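Ticket #4471: complex job returned nothing on first submit. Input attached below:
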Amino acid sequence: MPVEYWLIFILIVMIIASIAALEMEDVLSSIVAIGVVGLGVSLSFLFLQAPDLAIVQFLFEIFALIILVKAFMGKEYHKEEPSRINKILAGITVITLAAIFIFSVSVFELLPPFGEPLMTTSQYYLDKGAQDTGAANLVSSIILDYRAYDTLGEITVLFTAILGAFTILRIKTKSKKDKTEFSHAAK
Amino acid sequence: MIVYLLCFVLLLVGLYGVLTKRDLIKIILSIGILGYAVNLLLILFAYRKGSIYPILAKGKEVSQMVDPLPQALVLTSIVIELGTTAMLVALAIKLFEKYETFDITQIRRLKG
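Support reply: We reran it on our side without changes. The output follows.
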């Protein structure tokens, strides 16, 4: 079976899983469905000959699952039924997105067909990568040598995001319950 | 061609979730779906028919390898995605502690 058919199959499974994740009521089920989508991405990276990416995506998936389950489990709240205006707005959104899809078909026809990339810059990396950097893995030769400043910027962004997450979690907030208790005590 | 279109449908599903859902958890999950779709689309552009992974070894010819540049860029993008997801989750936890709900229509007061 050619790669294209495998990819079509995986992509259809991923689309169904993502719709299920968005529409299911239970939090744990939707997180697990997102896990299916992420593992589908990892599997398609394997089919597209990108083993480094498949491993990184797999690890990302596990960490994201742990973070989401730890953060969102057991946090129940009262859900209101969506009003009529919300349903109409959702319908309008679906129609708009379908229109965007139909118009974008002609855009995708302009792109080079699947399986025949442009390879203008990358051909240089493939030809000279081993001579210039001495790395056998050309992906890591690009990350750590040709585009090392990009990687430095990436590390900065990652550090800032993690620092932001820790800073947000350290701030102490007064919840509604505390406030009501406080007002009772004041009376 | 049809592979690109299916991947674009996945991106539109994520966009639909961001635009219509009122639950913060669902919004975070749909941002994740958007990220998956964009990464996969970039790697689909890089694939060359009948090629192998871009790692040099004995008996592997350079002319038979896929495009390594999008792979390198997507590798950094996946790692950043994890950081941003963690930050979004932290914000959502703080909002839940303050308002005791994940419904974005209930989260109104910006101060105090």
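Residues 1-76 of chain A form one domain. Closing as resolved unless it happens again.
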